[in-house]
Design brief:
The protein is an alpha+beta fold. The chain has helices spanning 2-19, 24-92, 98-118, and strands spanning 121-124, 137-143, 152-157, 159-162, 165-168, 170-175. The model has no long low-confidence stretch (mean pLDDT 87).
C-alpha cells in the first residue's frame, strides 16, 4: 500500500513539474510565447479595424460620387428652369410684335448662356483658318479655299464641352489641299 502512496506522490510532483517550468529557458520561452500571442491579438485587432475603416472609406466614396452626380444634374436643372419660364411667358403674350419677340428671345438666350456658364458648359467655335483639331472638330466636307489645307473654312454647327469633356464636336468644312 505504501508503494501505491509513494507512486501517487511522485505523480503529483510530475504534474506540478509539467505545469511549472523547470528551467529558466522554459520560463523565457513561455513568456515569449505569451508576449507573441498578445502581439498577435493586437495586430489582428488592428488589422480588423483597418479593414473596417477601408470598407467605410470605400462606401463613403461611393455615396459621395452618387451625390455628386445627383447634385450636378440638379444644379444644371435649376439653372434651366428660368429659361423654361421665360419661354412659357413668351408664348402667353396675346399679340406680340416682332420686336418684342426678338427682345424676348435675346433675353432668354442670355439666361441660357448664363446657365451654361455656371455649369462650365462652353462653346467650341473654331475660327476660320484654325487648324482642324479632330478632338474638338468634325469635318464633314473638304472645299476648295485660299488657305492652308486641313484648316477650318466654315463652322456649320457649334460644338460644346463641359469642363474638359467634349459633348459635341463643332461641325466644320475644311480647306482642300492645293
Amino acid at each position: 500500500m505504501q508503494d501505491q502512496e509513494n507512486q501517487a506522490v511522485p505523480n503529483h510532483e510530475a504534474d506540478a513539474a509539467a505545469a511549472a517550468p523547470s528551467t529558466p529557458a522554459e520560463a523565457t520561452l513561455e513568456e515569449q510565447l505569451a508576449s507573441t500571442e498578445a502581439r498577435l491579438a493586437e495586430m489582428h485587432d488592428a488589422f480588423m479595424r483597418a479593414k473596417a475603416d477601408g470598407e467605410n472609406i470605400r462606401r463613403r466614396a461611393q455615396e459621395d460620387v452618387a451625390k455628386a452626380h445627383k447634385f450636378a444634374v440638379e444644379s444644371f436643372a435649376e439653372a434651366l428652369v428660368p429659361v423654361k419660364d421665360s419661354l412659357e411667358t413668351a408664348l402667353t403674350v396675346a399679340a406680340p410684335s416682332i420686336e418684342s419677340l426678338k427682345e424676348g428671345v435675346e433675353m432668354t438666350l442670355k439666361q441660357l448662356s448664363a446657365a451654361f456658364e455656371r455649369n462650365r458648359l462652353v462653346e467650341v467655335v473654331p475660327a476660320q483658318g484654325e487648324k482642324l483639331d479632330p478632338m474638338k472638330h468634325q469635318a464633314v466636307a473638304v472645299v476648295p479655299a485660299d488657305q492652308e489645307a486641313n484648316t477650318v473654312v466654315t463652322v456649320l454647327q457649334k460644338g460644346y464641352m463641359i469642363a474638359d469633356r467634349l459633348l459635341r464636336p463643332a461641325i466644320v468644312t475644311t480647306a482642300q489641299a492645293k
